[in-house]
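Supplementary Note 3. Input sequence used for the single-chain structure prediction.
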Amino acid sequence: RLYEVMTDKGCVLKAEIEWPRGRQRKRHLHNFGLKDVVTKGMLKELLPAIIRKIQGTYGRVKTPLLSKAIEEFRAGHGATVKPVTLKWYRRGLEKVLAGIGDRPVNEITPGMLEQYKSQYAATPSATNNSLHVLHALFEMAMRVGYCDRNPVHGLKLLKSRPSRARMLSEQERTDLLKSAAVDSSPYIRDFILWQLHTAMRPCESMSLRESAIDLKNNRVRLGVTKSNRPRYVPLIKPAQEIAWRLFHGDGGALFRGTSGRALALVTVRGVFLRVAKNAGVNVRLYDCRHDAL
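The predicted structure, written as discrete structure tokens, is reproduced below.
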């Protein structure tokens, strides 16, 4: 509806647009200027664009800030991923939030992310991981209508540093096992041998329960792994001997301390560092797994 309103400066043309239709309709008022300046032809050109804008914004989800979107993303994934993965999500997204600031998600552009990459180029792996998580967040944001595009899509990641994975030489393996044999820890030699012959991750070995060991078929079932999918690990003869020797038959942890309680990974790492240092071998506990592979 077009109407005229008299003011001190003259007659002003106004338009009243009601949208949406129905009980929830709202009145949108627009001033077009003085009647002497604005012609009917100009109004015919302006009105359709204004109406389309009103219709387009109606029903659209209000875009939240990045911090709010991060909370929704973590809440939505909390029941589907492991706690350690959720912690990794939190660290990556907090790094992005600190790098580009808290702003509406639909205002984040590829240019901002390029600047973020340059700012954190000294830690390429962590920066790339944060961008991977951010990509998943924007996919969620697009599904719920927060934005129309994913600014991470097509973004070139930083070049990662060379992998630290290494294989043990025959001499290093021999020195490491000799050092473990004379160490005061009663379990470290068996644990190292287990890692060398099963290729299991240290955290998987530490959380291994006797109920997951199939001594009849000589295999181990890992129900919760890093990939969040179960997998079977075959046991060759040295690993079979360790399993039989340490087996208690109560379904508890396979690797236990002198008190009979399950070992903590941080404890085993500390003992392993001592053994490796005494052997004169510069190797990580995780490298034993690579050696088995």
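The beta strands are 2-7, 10-19, 26-34, 213-214, 219-222, 231-234. The chain has a mean pLDDT of 84.
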